[in-house]
């Protein structure tokens, strides 16, 4: 049994599935959802893959900052881009694959690689997707 304590719960309701709306209980998220054009939709709204990518990238960037502070590693601005692929696995089965690119300034490549490795262990999104979704992470130092 887990001894973890809940420290926050995000609440979102979706009506109408991929062609509907997503709204958070605090009103901070209220967005139209749409099938992307490659899936036959009009593309005139966000889709679950974009929203998942945004959440994962934001969480991973914050985790890198937390790991840097905890280890005393100096690091400049951090950005994380995410690409989330929807994969058709046959019949009505689908999977996801994720690629993250971490870009950071004012840090050595070695230190950034170490921070990224530690963030992969500490980030809640990484923990949730480990062994469930193919994920690759690349780290680049920007000058």
Describe this structure in words.
This protein has 143 residues and is an alpha+beta fold. It folds into two domains: 1-46, N-terminal domain of TfIIb (Single Sheet); 48-142, K homology (KH) domain (GMP Synthetase, Chain A, domain 3, 2-Layer Sandwich). Helix content is 31%, strand content 32%. The chain is built from three helices and six strands; from the N terminus they run βββαββααβ. The protein has helices spanning 48-71, 109-122, 124-129, and strands at residues 12-15, 21-24, 30-32, 78-90, 93-105, 134-142. The strands form two sheets. A three-stranded antiparallel β-sheet has the order 1-2-3, with no helix packed on it. A three-stranded mixed β-sheet has the order 4-5-6. Helix 1 crosses helix 2 (109-122). It is globular, with a radius of gyration of 17 Å. The termini are far apart. The mean pLDDT is 96.
Largest sheet: 3 strands, antiparallel
CATH superfamily of the largest domain: K homology (KH) domain
- Oligomeric state of the chains in view: single chain
**Which class do the helix and strand fractions yield?**
alpha+beta
The whole-angstrom Rg is 17 Å
Along the chain, the helix and strand elements come as EEEHEEHHE
Helix content: 25-40%
The mean pLDDT is: 96
Stretches where pLDDT is under 50 for at least 5 consecutive residues are none
Count of DSSP strands: 6
Strand order of the largest sheet: 1-2-3
Name of the CATH class of the largest domain:
Alpha Beta
């Amino acid at each position: 049994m887990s001894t973890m304590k809940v420290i926050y719960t995000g609440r979102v309701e979706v009506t109408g599935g991929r062609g509907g709306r997503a709204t958070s209980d605090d009103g901070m998220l209220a967005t139209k959802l749409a099938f992307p054009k490659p899936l036959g939709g009009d593309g005139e709204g966000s889709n679950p893959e974009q929203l998942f990518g945004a959440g994962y990238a934001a969480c991973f960037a914050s985790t890198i900052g937390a790991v840097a502070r905890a280890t005393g590693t100096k690091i400049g601005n951090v950005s994380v881009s995410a690409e989330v692929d929807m994969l058709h696995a046959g019949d009505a089965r689908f999977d996801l694959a994720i690629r993250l690119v971490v870009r950071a300034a004012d840090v050595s490549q070695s230190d950034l690689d170490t921070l990224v490795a530690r963030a992969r262990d500490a980030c809640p999104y990484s923990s949730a997707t480990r062994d469930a979704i193919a994920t690759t992470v690349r780290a680049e130092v920007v000058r």
